[in-house]
Amino acid sequence: MEKIKIATIEEVEQKKQVVKRFLGKTYVIRKDGDGYIVLEYMCRHQGADLTTGKEEKDIVICPRHKWKYNKNTGENFEGNGEPLKRYPIEIVGDKIFIILGSDE
Ligand code: FES
């Protein structure tokens, strides 16, 4: 397991959404109720970067083949049903860390 700092609480609070790219992947960090959520923002079909997709309310539409996801929860409701990968996080002070598993 690996722990990587992905954002600060201040960044997320100010911007509502923070996008980070590392290890060849795109991650989105958002508020989630009283906490925060980190989603791997890559389509579960063929890996398109969803930050380039069209957004309609709570939905993001993949720019390649139009699979649809709930941009807040990662739920996939037009596609194969596989949700966006959600990562466990740890908050230390004002820093948000993503916990990467051994499969990363
Ligand atoms: S890559 Fe997203 S629907 Fe095909």
Structural summary, described in words:
With 104 residues, the protein is mainly beta. It has a single domain (16-88), classed as Rieske [2Fe-2S] iron-sulphur domain (Rieske Iron-sulfur Protein). 7% of the residues lie in helices and 49% in strands. The protein is built from one helix and eleven strands. It has one helix spanning 9-15; strands at 2-8, 17-22, 25-32, 35-40, 54-56, 59-61, 68-70, 76-78, 86-87, 89-92, 95-100. It has a four-stranded antiparallel beta sheet with strand order 2-3-4-9, covered by helices on one side. Strands 5-6-7-8 form a four-stranded antiparallel beta sheet, with no helix packed on it. The protein has a three-stranded antiparallel beta sheet with strand order 1-11-10. β2 (17-22) and β3 form a beta hairpin. The longest helix is centred in the first third of the chain and has 7 residues, at 9-15. The radius of gyration is 13 Å and the shape is globular. The model has no long low-confidence stretch (mean pLDDT 94). The structure holds FE2/S2 (inorganic) cluster. FE2/S2 (inorganic) cluster is lined by residues 43, 45-46, 48, 62, 64-65, 67.
Keywords:
binds FE2/S2 (inorganic) cluster; 104 residues; 1 helix; Rieske Iron-sulfur Protein; 4-stranded antiparallel beta sheet
